[in-house]
Design a protein that fits this description.
single chain; 269 residues; alpha/beta; Rossmann fold; Hypothetical Protein, Haloacid Dehalogenase-like Hydrolase, Chain: A, domain 2; 2 domains; 8-stranded mixed beta sheet; 6-stranded mixed beta sheet
Length: 269
């Protein structure tokens, strides 16, 4: 296939083990730009993704954030937005109070944490974005007044507690909510109405109507990338991807630590 557009997951895929863009990756993306648009498609919030766009010199390109729940155009305009309704968000965050779980709530450019604890500090270090700190009860009351849902809920804590929360979501919200473990201590929660593949398909129809999914090369490593990697013309899994993702993906590259995205760009583009 002729590569006409590239999109990449960020954590575990585009970034190295230190969660930074390597010189090799920056050089590969800059070599193909702007002839081949290089889009970021991630569970991250837009503010964090824009920092990476600046490093890659791809500012002004659309973004797909929160696993597809928020699609932003080249000027930052909202092209599509899908949130977890407030009532559902409230139940998920409050129905198991005995579990010691940190709930980060996200809506567009807002990231609110209940305290600047171990989990918030680690995520702040990973994303280079500072959260707003407010007790969970106050945030829920404020968002109730606004009738504001969440583009993403990030539940962080010990694995056993997250196991119970995941089971609770599966039992009561399996028709509404998609929850997956990005690591044992992270449970990422978003609306089941969408995923990265459906978000990209919509973005192409609005922003790049001359392209379709067969024209796209995509990179990923985790469960939330699977449908994307299966539906584009060339889905490429990095070598450190989950075993199930490697098995389901037709093309592979070296690991994120070895600049796998850059290696595949050099090979195919």
């Amino acid at each position: 296939m002729e590569c006409k557009l590239i999109c990449s997951d960020i954590d575990g895929t585009l970034l190295d083990v230190n969660r930074r863009l390597s010189a090799e990756t920056r050089a590969a993306v800059r070599r193909i730009s702007p002839d081949i648009p290089f889009l970021l498609i991630s569970s991250r919030m837009p503010k964090s993704m824009r920092l990476l766009q600046t490093e890659l010199q791809t500012e002004g390109l659309p973004l797909i954030a929160y696993n597809g729940a928020l699609i932003l155009g080249s000027e930052g305009q909202v092209l599509q937005s899908t949130v977890i309704p407030f009532s559902t968000m409230h139940e998920i965050c409050t129905q198991q109070p005995n579990l010691d779980i940190h709930f980060s709530l996200y809506n567009q450019e807002e990231w609110v944490v209940p305290a600047l604890d171990f989990w918030a500090k680690r995520e702040q270090n990973n994303t280079r974005v500072a959260p707003e700190v407010r007790p969970l009860e106050q945030t829920l009351a404020l968002w109730k007044e606004r009738d504001q849902g969440a583009h993403k809920i990030m539940a962080m804590g010990e694995a056993a507690g997250l196991d119970q929360l995941e089971q609770y979501i599966t039992k009561y919200f399996s028709d509404q909510i998609h929850a997956y473990r990005s690591k044992d201590t992270y449970l990422e929660i978003s609306s089941k109405e969408l995923d990265k593949a459906s978000a990209l398909d919509y973005l192409l129809s609005v922003v790049y109507p001359d392209l379709d999914m067969e024209d796209v090369m995509a990179f990923g490593d985790n469960y939330n990338d699977q449908t994307l990697l299966e539906q584009v013309g060339r889905g490429v899994a990095v070598a450190n991807a989950k075993p199930e993702i490697l098995a389901a993906t037709p093309f592979h590259t070296v690991s994120n630590h070895d600049h796998g995205v850059a290696a595949a760009i050099d090979q195919y583009c």
